[in-house]
Request: fold
Amino acid sequence: MQGIPLKTDRNTLYIRVETLGKTPPMTPEALERGTKWLSGADLRPTRQRLSLASLLVGDGQNRHVTAEGLHEAVLASGDKVSLATVYNTLKAFCDAGLMREVTVDGSRSYFDTRTDDHPHFFWEEDGRLTDAPAEELEIAGLPTPPEHHEIATVDVVIRLRRTT
Reply:
């Protein structure tokens, strides 16, 4: 099938457009999940937000996406949404607590639909970001924050490189 194959790794899906063919229309279930996801954060379900939300959470799986990858996916689905709208919408989703932004190398941002604290693997050979098993991570201690500050979050991104 042409369109947006969803690749699975450790129960997390990410969107990668393999072809530019038109994908099937959104299912009623995907639209319903997207609508519920938006309403849970009191975000008005505009056409663009609903289209992006349906791609992100329509099948109930967690995703790590880049704005560019999501833009390609929404275009492949037959919807017309600008890249600027995708960026603005992802920022709105993050501000509403629906997603978290994970920055790799200070220059590339991924957006994660799983919002609890958890580590990530960054696969250098193909630029994927996936969840890493949190139960295997131990952080023995953190430095004391400067006066009048507190630690808001600790992001752990483990970079992986193929050995053979």
Summary: Confidence is low (pLDDT under 50) at residues 1-24. The beta strands are 6-9, 12-15, 62-65, 100-104, 108-112, 120-123, 128-131, 157-160.
